[in-house]
């Protein structure tokens, strides 16, 4: 199983800190899976101009193709000005409308204010649903107070991230089994 961790911002450190912990927890618990981290701060991404994602070059092509080949995607995103970052939205714009069909997508959010709790519900989940993702319904919301000197200091955040990883893999394994059973019904 191929799992992509997508750190959805090109600025800041909190989302990457949480993504590093998430990927480490996933790799320890599920060592047979293949993990890839895409941190948009480390990539030179082109803005979407409507082309097929395979027609882009360099980092943009790599990121889009890696996401398209994944079985599961764990998205980490900060909230800026009560919205998801443009860098993350650009990833969605680069991909086809059904890019997440047969993929499990889970997420965590880092935010400076508890007022932004519902951004994932009101903005991120509708986009993922439109793109045909199988969404892990619970997500992890991490506030400014949960960090100190670029480290997570709240044990509850670790527990919630561990649960998110388990839920992601459980849903991925369940849907894979269902799909395989459905496909086995056909003789061709």
User: What is the CATH architecture annotation?
Assistant: 3-Layer(aba) Sandwich
CA-based gyration radius: 16 Å
Largest sheet at a glance? 6 strands, parallel
Order of helices and strands: EHEHEHEHEEEEH
Low-confidence runs? none
Global outline? globular
Strand content: 15-25%
Number of strands: 8
Mean pLDDT: 96
Terminal Cα separation, in Å? Answer: 24 Å
Structural class: alpha/beta
The first-level CATH class name: Alpha Beta
Going by CATH, the homologous superfamily would be: Flavodoxin domain
Helical segment count: 5
* Total count of domains: 1
The CATH topology is given as Rossmann fold
| Fraction of residues in helix | 40-55%
Protein name: FMN reductase
InterPro entries: Flavoprotein-like_sf, FMN_Rdtase-like_dom, NAD(P)H-dep_FMN_reductase
Pfam family, one: FMN_red
Keywords: Flavoprotein, FMN, Oxidoreductase
């Amino acid at each position: 199983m191929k799992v992509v961790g997508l750190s959805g911002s090109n600025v800041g450190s909190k989302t990457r800190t949480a993504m590093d912990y998430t990927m480490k927890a996933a790799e320890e618990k599920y060592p047979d899976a293949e993990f890839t981290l895409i941190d948009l701060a480390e990539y030179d991404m082109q803005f979407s101009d409507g082309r097929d994602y395979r027609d882009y070059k360099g980092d943009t092509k790599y990121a889009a193709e890696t996401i398209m080949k994944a079985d599961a995607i764990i998205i980490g995103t900060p909230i800026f000005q009560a919205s998801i970052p443009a860098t993350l939205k650009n990833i969605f714009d680069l991909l086809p409308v059904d890019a997440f069909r047969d993929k499990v997508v889970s997420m965590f959010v880092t935010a400076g204010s508890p007022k932004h709790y519902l951004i994932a519900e009101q903005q991120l989940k509708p986009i993922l649903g439109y793109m045909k993702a199988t969404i892990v319904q619970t997500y992890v919301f991490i506030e400014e107070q949960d960090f100190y000197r670029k480290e997570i200091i709240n044990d509850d955040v670790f527990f919630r991230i561990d649960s998110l990883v388990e839920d992601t893999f459980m849903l991925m394994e369940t849907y894979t089994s269902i799909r395989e059973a459905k496909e086995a019904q056909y003789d061709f």
